[in-house]
Amino acid sequence: MTAVASTALKPILEMRGITKTYPGVTALDNVDFAVLPGEVHALVGENGAGKSTLMKILAGADTKDSGRVLIDGSEVHIDTPQEAMRLGISIIYQEFNLVPYMNAAENIFLGREPMSSIPGVIDFGKMRAEAERVISELGVPVDVRVPVSRLSVAQQQMVEIAKATSRSARIIAMDEPSATLTEHELANLFALIRRLKADGVSIIYISHRLEEIFEIADRVTVLRDGKLVATKHVWETDRDDVIRMMVGRELTEKIPKVPAKLGEVALEVRGLTSGGSLQGKTGEGRRGIRNVSFAVRRGEVLGIAGLVGAGRTEVARAIFGADPIDSGEILLDGKRVTIRSPKDAIRLGIGLVTEDRKALGLVLGMALRENVTLAKLGPLSRLGFISRRREREVASRFVEELMIKTPSIEQAVQNLSGGNQQKVVLAKWLYTQSKVLIFDEPTRGIDVGAKTEIYQLMNRLAQHGVAIIMISSELPEILGMSDRILVMHEGEIAGELSPEEATQEKIMSLATGGR
Amino acid sequence: MARGRASYSQKRERAKEPDSASVSPRPTSGISRFRTIALSRLGPVAFLLFLCLFFQYETGTFLTLRNLSNVLRQTSVNTIIAVGMTMVIITGGIDLSVGAILALAGVLSTAVIMTGFPPAFPFPPDVAIKPQWPLVVSAPFAAGVAALTGAICGVHNAIPIVKLRVPPFIATLAMFSVARGAAYIYVGGGQVGNLPIAFTRAVGEGALMPCVAIASVILGHVILTSTRFGRAIYAIGGNENAAHLSGIDVGRVKFWVYVISGTLAGIAGLLLAGRIGAGDPKSGMTYELNAIAAVVLGGTSLMGGVGSVAGTLLGAIVIGCLEAGLSLMGVQWFVQMVVKGYVILMAVVVDQVKKRR
């Protein structure tokens, strides 16, 4: 902190002694946080550390119990999102705030559309020109005339940023901006952040990917359990130090792979082709798959790498019966099977840990207990009546086994942190005793500690003879956990690598269509 | 709940300890679960008590056995259809056709009482017609026809919803029109009158209606809280995608939910016909709205995933008391409509405010 005081710059934003409690939980405890003009300030911490709460208070989306917020040295009261915007604060959440049916121009000027000379009528020409100007200043190609639902995730993010800059935001907070971006898109984002920074805009950068922080940030603030641990310049610290501060203990983020004994082929797919006509929410992100063939053995972890939109999730959905197959066959234990619905797949012993746990994996309003048993109520019920006692036993067992942090098995899963929610999803599929388990981005958006626990769990499953398919965009995870690596590119398998020969460069080369 | 929350902060201190100890006990039996739900709706219970005392003070006769049993019978029809409506709404759907199904099932089943099974088609316009079969024989047939009519209408609702992905609002709006039209067609614009006194007395004065209502409530409650089917209903309303990917046959569950709703409306149709003494195609108008009001007063979310039959029963009783009490006070029916509208609005607003805290 002394280093900060010695610089001539005065902070553009200061949050002093911010405290926020929810019933029974202290989300923020006397937290100080300051951002300098033109600074990229990383905010890190495990899930539940208080980052989101701090940002919500800054955005006027939630109220603080005590503490002060100062902009340019004078105190402000941010009670509403409108007030935050007026003060030049923009927050770009992980889930974008865009109207999917409107185009980029309409989204950027939503609620403050330029008016023509006729009262109440929007000047669309002017709006489009303005939007194009804002977008071109960002230096990224986005067609402002197509509905944003047809733009890629990266392009939608640009529209969000354009929304912020067009309001001449001076502080832009980005919550996990890289979570769904490919390497190339991430490079674009970083270039853009540097340009914004040169214009004097301050960026608050929230990310779980520590390597990004050392690439882009000037300073880093670490929160843990709602308390400020430290704010440091990135040159004062390193990756291990930040991890240490986050978890409060020594922890190597090294991936603890334990090779298991490989058995017979559990699942084989031949010439799998699907989804000529898939309509997905992410527009360009969803495509079909063509002629996908591979096999997974018992005890094996098969990693599937590739860029977002390469068709990895579609392979999982096709096998699981969630999307119809156009052609190709699926063999389980050497026998051809027909899978028309997830119900068929579950009956045959296949499980799918979906990529988006909130939208696809969990019934958020339901109790933890009900989510755990949802995929396999048969053994818990007689004549259609569920035995609550046995259901509770099952749920309690998994809470203990997976160390799920929850006040009770009756807690609605929407109140759990991301890592614990993911564990509930895993509990559901462990309980079905799947023989083939597909993990789609199993550690996305969860903290370091929970990640390690999930890797260890995969090891245990493999040792018990479960065949695992792991789809991941995190290359260290792919390299660290896989017994074999498939790389997909534009709906097809571009190549297969053994862990010995695989490197990040080789995978990226295959994933981008190289050899 | 309060207990679970209180232990949470301590839990975070000991972070990594396994926390099986924190698993709080919950009521196990169906009855105590019913009580838990009722207690969670203390506001409406208090409001109901207030209503009863207010009407007693104003009229002096509200809290008499005679009046209360009358209220109970008046509430029965709405309760029966609201049970089906609760299930539909928890899946995230809506059933606008129950009032019309009620009318169609009412005319068809009373026709069975008058002309035997199968009923004459079209219904003879002769007003002097006498029952062809003895009531003991025709009554079970009539009940069967009422239920079957409702079930068929339910299937008719479900097929476009499940197979063709027509929004439930539209599919049941169509049936709202079709079923009532069919009821008019069948009786040629008239009604099925001259029902045997024994029948109208059994339905209108005995304990039959409240018994059927209570049976539907118990059945609905047990289905929703204790069966796989009930669990699937909540899961679909809470997150249809997740339910599908957990192996739940979403289409089949929705299908049966609309069939149940239709069937209950059909049964209610025969009872209502008995109470008003005729199979009348005009009966049951706006009953779908009363049922939805009871469901919403009972704390069920129109977004799906949340709700209970116990709450719905409470909602139906509140509406029933309100109507009966206001009538007893001599308040005109159109004034009652205004009062009822604001009570429903108020109840939901109070709920929303509570949730926000």
Would you give an account of this structure?
The complex is a heterodimer of chains A (515) and B (357). Chain A contains 18 helices and 22 strands. In chain A, a hairpin with a 2-residue loop joins strand 4 (66-71) and strand 5. Chain A is globular, with a radius of gyration of 24 Å. Chain A has helices spanning 2-6, 51-59, 81-86, 104-108, 124-138, 153-166, 183-198, 210-216, 239-247, 312-320, 342-347, 357-361, 368-373, 388-401, 418-431, 448-463, 475-481, 504-511, and strands at residues 13-22, 25-35, 40-44, 66-71, 74-76, 89-92, 171-175, 202-206, 219-224, 227-233, 265-274, 289-297, 301-306, 325-332, 335-337, 350-353, 381-382, 385-386, 436-440, 467-471, 484-489, 492-497. Chain B is mainly alpha-helical and 357 residues long. Chain B has a single domain (55-356), classed as ABC transporter involved in vitamin B12 uptake, BtuC. Chain B has helices spanning 2-13, 30-39, 42-59, 65-90, 98-115, 135-163, 168-187, 197-204, 208-226, 228-238, 240-245, 250-276, 287-297, 309-328, 333-356. Chain B is globular, with a radius of gyration of 22 Å. In chain B, 49% of the residues are buried. The model of chain B is unreliable at 1-28 (pLDDT under 50). The interface between A and B is large, with 48 and 38 residues.
Provide key terms for this protein.
heterodimer, A: 515 residues, alpha/beta, Rossmann fold, 3 domains, 6-stranded mixed sheet, 22 strands, 33% helix, 25% strand, globular, disordered N terminus, B: 357 residues, mainly alpha, ABC transporter involved in vitamin B12 uptake, BtuC, 15 helices
Concise synopsis of the structure shown:
The complex is a heterodimer of chains A (515) and B (357). Chain A is of the alpha/beta class and 515 residues long. Chain A has helices at 2-6, 51-59, 81-86, 104-108, 124-138, 153-166, 183-198, 210-216, 239-247, 312-320, 342-347, 357-361, 368-373, 388-401, 418-431, 448-463, 475-481, 504-511, and strands at residues 13-22, 25-35, 40-44, 66-71, 74-76, 89-92, 171-175, 202-206, 219-224, 227-233, 265-274, 289-297, 301-306, 325-332, 335-337, 350-353, 381-382, 385-386, 436-440, 467-471, 484-489, 492-497.
